[in-house]
Amino acid sequence: MKYRLELLEPVTVINSFGEEVPTYNKVRTVAAERVKASGHRSEEVGEHFPDYRAEFNIRDAHPVKENWRVRQLGGYVYTVTNIIPNLDRGMKTLVCERLNP
């Protein structure tokens, strides 16, 4: 497995104003295999935005859930939108969307 991913779990923290602010705590760094990467342009309210997606395989022993984030070391940060189990290989496929900078 060529890529290294940091799994980031969402945690809600109350700031000094009493607001609930989502933050992300690093759970662990895992080895991953990129299965697919794609990109296209989306249009929202008359503006064009880049839309990048990627799929990564990781071992099914690693805890991860939808709406977590993954940071590709030396790369981008993605939001996990779906998790597809691959029981035959003992893997999970993480379907991810890249966060816009």
Quick recap:
With about 100 residues, the protein is mostly beta strands.
Written account of the structure:
The chain is mainly beta. The protein contains no helices and six strands. Strands 1-2-3-6-5-4 form a six-stranded antiparallel β-barrel. The two termini are 27 Å apart.
Low-confidence region ranges: none
Question: What is the H/E string?
Answer: EEEEEE
Percent in strands = over 45%
Strand order of the largest sheet: 1-2-3-6-5-4
Helix percentage: under 10%
Distance between the termini: 27 Å
* Overall SS class: mainly beta
Largest sheet: 6 strands, antiparallel, barrel
Task: Compute the number of strand runs.
Answer: 6
Number of continuous helical runs? 0
Rg on CA atoms, Å: 15 Å
Please state the overall shape, judged from the principal axes of the Cα atoms. globular
Averaged pLDDT: 91
Structural key phrases:
101 residues, six-stranded antiparallel β-barrel, 6 strands, mainly beta
Write the layout of secondary structure elements.
Layout: E1 3-14, E2 20-44, E3 47-59, E4 69-72, E5 77-86, E6 91-98
Antiparallel strand pairs: 1-2, 1-4, 2-3, 3-6, 4-5, 5-6
